[in-house]
Design a protein that fits this description.
CATH class of the largest domain: Alpha Beta
Number of helices: 13
CATH architecture of the largest domain: 3-Layer(aba) Sandwich
Largest sheet: 7 strands, mixed
Order of helices and strands: HEHHEHEHEEEHEHEEHEHHHEEHEEEH
Shape: globular
CATH topology of the largest domain: Aspartate Aminotransferase, domain 2
């Protein structure tokens, strides 16, 4: 059996994706269903790679879990990974660990922008981008993506206008969550050039960078550090290898002053010590799991094609953004003339949970985000529930 189609039970392990629904601890209305299939939170419903499990098992057998530090081996492994996979060169001392990318985004905003600064996001976008800005008392400035058939493009004319108005930071999402774009090298270069021209700090969330299809190669902003060094690059093994609970992300900052300010912000909040098991998992992931990763990408690609085929046959009025990277599909359900809240609530009553499109921007009511990082059996069950909901809706 395909590793990614092997059944796995994620109930009763304190999983946000599975157990918050069962316990009715989340902010959705109670449902009549005893079991809900979750297609919302961005983690995957299959085991991580065996080399990671082996590394964790070996470390656990040591029996001690005291304070730890980032050793030279870890830094070199991360450095080698980004060079081998994405062809940009960094130094070990550019790498700072963080409990998560969202944590890093919050403290980057806090440490590196002024009070009430304008910060650009490209909506629709991952909803914590908004909260890390507002929770720091900064102002959100939207540079809305342009919908074009079944894909999205950057509005560079509007972006330059926003930069001219004096934005201090642009938070980029690449690959983009939720629309699934993998920005091209030309697009990334243009963003970098504009930020350099207007001296805007560029923060790039690249947490999904490993999960891209071969016809859409990933370009990191790190490939342009020689052009512009006022950039922060946020990476992690968490989405790629389903280890988000180990709370280990790698933040790459070339400029020494930026790096020192960011490290200070973490240190004054006692966030500088890493997770000992997260370090072991990352080392194994970046040295022993290439084949597993390639197989996962192919599995996600097959799942995406399964979604396209099902919707074309059964729900042709919906519009699905072409998936180039990530395992998150962006689906326009506005033909039903329901709000995203009504879609989520209705689908919950039928037995599945998806994300509300309105979470990602005010213009996207009537959209949903659908996580396909699961077995084909689970995916098929979810698709049939959506089909039944649409067919029976009056």
């Amino acid at each position: 059996m395909n590793h990614f189609n092997k059944p796995i039970n994620r109930l009763n392990i304190s999983s946000i994706k599975w157990d918050y629904i069962k316990k009715n601890e989340y902010h959705f209305e109670k449902t009549k269903k005893d079991t809900i299939l979750p297609f919302w939170v961005a983690d995957s419903d299959y085991m991580t790679a065996k080399p990671i499990l082996d590394a964790l098992t070996s470390r656990v057998k040591n029996g001690t879990f005291g304070y730890t530090y980032i050793d030279h081996e870890y830094l070199t492994i991360v450095k080698d990974w980004v060079w081998r996979k994405y062809h940009y060169e960094i130094e070990n001392n550019w790498i700072i660990t963080s409990p998560g990318v969202v944590t890093a985004l919050f403290f980057a905003v806090s440490a590196l922008t002024t009070k009430e600064a304008n910060i650009i996001v490209q909506s629709p976008v991952y909803n914590p981008f908004y909260s890390v800005i507002t929770n720091n008392n900064r102002r959100i400035v939207e540079n809305k993506l342009i919908a074009n058939e079944n894909t999205y493009e950057m509005d560079f004319e509007n972006l330059e206008t926003r930069l001219k108005e004096g934005a201090e930071m642009l938070i980029l999402c690449n690959p983009h969550n939720p629309v699934g774009r993998v920005w091209t090298a030309a697009e990334i270069k243009k963003v970098v050039d504009l930020c350099k021209q207007y001296q805007c700090l560029l923060v790039s969330d690249e947490i999904h960078c490993d999960l891209v299809f071969k016809e859409h190669p990933f370009t990191s902003v790190g490939q342009f550090f020689d052009v512009y060094d006022q950039m922060i690059l946020c990476t992690a093994p968490s989405k790629t290898f389903n280890i988000a609970g180990l709370m280990t992300s790698n933040i790459i900052i070339k400029d020494k002053k930026l790096r020192e300010k960011f490290v200070h912000e973490l240190a004054i909040r006692s966030l500088q010590e890493p997770n000992v098991l997260g370090l072991e998992a990352c080392k194994a992931a970046y040295t022993k799991c290439d084949d597993w990763l390639e197989a996962q990408i192919e599995h996600i690609h097959q799942n995406a094609n399964k979604v396209y085929r099902y919707f074309k046959k059964n729900i042709p009025n919906a519009r699905i953004a072409k998936l180039e990277g990530t395992y998150l599909m962006w689906i326009d359900m506005r033909f039903m003339k329901l709000t995203s809240k009504e879609l989520v609530s209705g689908l919950l009553d039928y037995g599945i949970l998806v994300n509300s499109g309105a979470m990602y921007g005010t213009d996207y009511d009537g959209f949903i985000r659908f996580n396909i990082a699961c077995s084909q059996q689970q995916l098929q069950a979810g698709l049939e529930i959506i089909g039944k909901f649409v067919a029976e809706y009056k």
